Known about the structure:
Helix content: over 70%
Strand order of the largest sheet: 1-2
Shape: globular
Distance between the termini: 44 Å
Number of helices: 13
Amino acid sequence: MKKKYFLENFMKWLFFASALVSVISIIVICYFIFEGGIPFMLDYGLGNFLFGTKWAPSNSTPSFGILPMIFGSIVITIGAIILGVPTGIFTSIFMAKFCPPKLHQFLKPAVNMMAAIPSIVYGFFALQLIVPLMRQLVGGTGMNILTASILLGIMILPTIIGMSEASIVAVPKSYYEGSIALGATHERSVMRVVVPAAKSGILSSVILGIGRAIGETMAVILIAGNQPRIPESVTQGVRTMTTNIVLEMAYAAGQHRDALIATAVVLFIFILVINGIFSVVKRRGN
């Protein structure tokens, strides 16, 4: 009896310690980012930093406007959402309710394998295939917003497909059977009953997909053009906040380094805002 009590107590504190490590890690990360970034933004000027259109840290009078990077992150993420979210959701519906078992045995491991591929490999894939194609279709170098959006749309597919399919499969079979019993077709039962019942999990998959798209770095570095400017069309190059940090942090010092940490603060707040918006939408949907 004492041994059982000791084991239960030990496991309880082990789980508590694990949770505490996660919480402390988040607190430390937040402290490091905000402690280094907020003072710079207040000193340089929040408006100048967020809405400045010139990024020139090596000039005699350095400029640290990140509006082009904010714009680049937003527009590439929107492009990835437009391409990836509908494709991912429809694929998950097909795999959950329409896919033949033999085909599902091939598709499921393939989707899981997509999630395991490193982002740099996706970047090389786009560099060898999508960039030359874009160069032929729209001209220029082929490294532009459209190319990056297509790649990120592909990269968020495994996240959306995996979670959405799991949510659809988890819907009680009685929902579908009740709809069929009332005379609805298979397609109507799936689209009007099962999928709406799984919308909470589907929304969660979309949130995670958007989080990956806006935070992606290595693949975007290779194909987005990395030009710190506000483009006039989707066929021009752009730089995102993540690529701006990665490209310059290795040699940055002083005010330049603080500006990059402040960029990380803005990116962090973006993620919080996105999660907050979708949490509100999710609660209202429930």
